[in-house]
Predict the 3D structure of the following.
Amino acid sequence: MLETLFPEAELVESAPKAKRPKIGRYERLKRDSQADFDDEFKVFVDVNESSVSGRTYRFIDLFCGAGGITKGLSMAGLQPVASVEISPIASATHLRIFPSCKHYCGDIKNYHPGKLLNLEEQGEIHLVSGGPPCQGFSVAGKRDPNDERNKLFREFIRVVAEIRPWYVVMENVPGILTMKGGAVRSAIIEAFEEIGYPNMSVTVLESADYGVPQFRPRAIFVANRFGLDNPYPKPQLTPNQYRPIESAISDLPPSTPIPAINHEWIRHSKQYMERIAKVPPGGSLYETFFDAFKRQYPGLPSMTIKENHGGTHIHPHLNRVISAREMARLQTFPDDFIFEGTMKKAMWQIGNAVPPRLAQVIELALIPYLNEIAKAPADSQNLENVRRHNSIRQTALFA
């Protein structure tokens, strides 16, 4: 089978003994967060892939990176009005892909939408999305509660307070939910309540549940200023239906780079490839850098992809690391989404992104609520009907 998929490549001739897959690192946290019955505003809805709202909903993407969330929300039919990113190279990619979006490249502390946007001309902003840098929260890092990056979510809140969107969607790594015994999570929720967004919900969504060929759990915070439900997409796939890594990358040339679409990878010497050949699925080339150079499991979604300074995951069948375009495919970026900069810069942008497909289904869950708000008179006191009409209570997930 492997020779059919990758006829040109040097394959592992005698496959080393594979390590047992350790899938679901955050599975318990995911289930606990989804089954949080104390949160009556959290609901899970069936997403309609062909949903067309008939209205134009506008959003601003903060900490947007190269544009994973921007792309996903655009795929759901929303219009990106503005975006903010401090990285010049990620900003260059975003500007290339979304030329009509008013992009601000700089420190969010200096971003003031009232000065930079004509909000009256743009019309109401219906959603603010984004993901504050997660390194300070990640279990892979030091988890330093005093890390300045942990405080950047307050800049997100400051912008939300100025724009006053209907809904807010904020994403981060799952480890944020348990940091300091849940204190960081509580601080985020309380801060949003202070600016008029009470009853914020948070849950862990597994990207693979929605057709992303990668295990990539994310903590998703949702809030609104109307006292309505905070909808999340119901899982669309069961684990035995997950898309394997091969479904995304098997048609790319195994040994011929295509720089025009970012299909490039770290070049290896023959000796290095011989070392890689000895790495079993689930194993790493280095004991001291176990998150780098990990051989992927055949027939399963990829492990969470990371850039790791060029130490990307090892291909499940080939004696090389995966390419930047293979990383992008595993993140569900289309091939016409071209990343600016060097190969390593492209890998960095891709590894830090939210899968567009995950952002898309999150927004598809929101659209019925946006539609109901849009139909309600500005002074309506009956938005509670939106909850009763649209909600599929979370208990249905765990009945």
Q: What stands out?
A: The beta strands are 42-45, 58-62, 79-85, 102-105, 127-130, 167-172, 201-206, 217-224, 230-233.
